[in-house]
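comment on this one:
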Amino acid sequence: MKRQLCALLSLLIVGTAFASCGGDTGSDATVDTTSAEGQTVSTEPAETEEPSAFDLMESVDYGGQIIRIMLSDQQNEQGDIITAEEENGDVLHDLIYRRNRAVEEKYNVLIEGEADTNSVVNDMIRMQVQGGSNDYEFYFAHSSVSGLATAGLLYPISQMEEIDLTNPWWDKAALNDLSIGGEVFMAIGDISPVSLLTSSCMAFNKKLFSQQDMAFPYEMAADGKWTIDAMLDMTKGLTTDLNGDGSLDCNNDLFSMTSWGWDSPYSLFYGTGGKLSAKDDNDIPYIDFNLDRLSSIYDKIFELVIGQQSNFVTDVAEYMNTYTTFVNGNAYFCDITLYKIGLYLRDMEDDFGILPTPKYDEASDYTSLVNLSAPMIAVPRNAQDVSRTGTIIEAIAAAAYDMVTPQLFDVITKSKNVRDEESAAMVDLIVRNRVFDPVYIYQINGYGCVDGQLKAKKNEIASQYERNLKAAEKMMEKIVKAYEEIE
């Protein structure tokens, strides 16, 4: 199938080149014709729409086969597979509905989706493989499915001939970061809009910026100058005790930033270039605690969150105060995910904009953390028809790349508030520059050091990584060994 798709793409390119090399009768030429009345009529060439990636894929007739897919849906969020019988007006729902219908028609299949909690989904994969059943074609699983990969219960996606992981709808960072010895057991990309929406970012209040004559940071971000130092300079002195009562609260005062304590330590750490592992020449990951670099990153995060007295919410009972503080106009910035923008900010009266998480310095790349709750594609080791499973996965991914991702901005904003082209460009920058660290995905010792120290308001990090180093190395070695022993 890969060869056939490449051949079709080549024919398309050659055909286009051939048409452009012709003479006056080429496709770009204006043709003069004579009408029945003897008048000369000039006709412009008709515009032709190039076939999409999904259009170029080979059609296969699976004879009405039911494709059952199980999704992890811990918080009853919008699923990646919609099996409703009709559109309902919700942007994401209708986009996924149309994508699924396109796949069903092209391959003569019926897609059925079910959802359950993270732990239940993982248990179902385990029972399917160990019990020898074929209940589900594949799974959209929580990142904790990584434990099933090391247990040898997942089929290596990198060995599925019908899936081409070099295609643009597969997240290259995930493939590079999560592969071990060249094998990939979990994949992520456009196939999961929920995953794309789980990318971390920053929202900023345009009204507050304008009141302070502060320039919107769009140009700075586009020019690669949106760094954590730039954000520190921008937010210095913004937190204000408006009512003068000597204390700060989210209902009556103004904050430089508001953030959720169980997300922002990780989004800021990875956004500013933090990484706790590296790879050797054989694609084997190892622990890499660069203490000088990690300390420098943490110092800046600490100043942004604690030193500048941001609204750093750590009490689960106060979770919503993270976002209502921003919605009510009491914070300049909000550390958030794309999904939560659509969920919590849709009715905000003040205009706001979207930015990537600030990076470490101008020489660095922007990187967006993908929260642990983001779905990953997992195929059970005992897949009944590997070829069919691979074909359908690749088709759904390609169709999503064509039909869903280009409309992701509308999904986030619900056509409200964030209407400027600059924010739309930022969204593309965010979802195409994501980071996946095995230490975070596998929750190896040391992954939560920044989290713990920020909540304790301690301005030191090196000792925490030193304390966790040996245990982290042993756990990583155990994971690598488990993969090497998979037959």
Q: What stands out?
A: The first helix runs from residue 2 to 20.
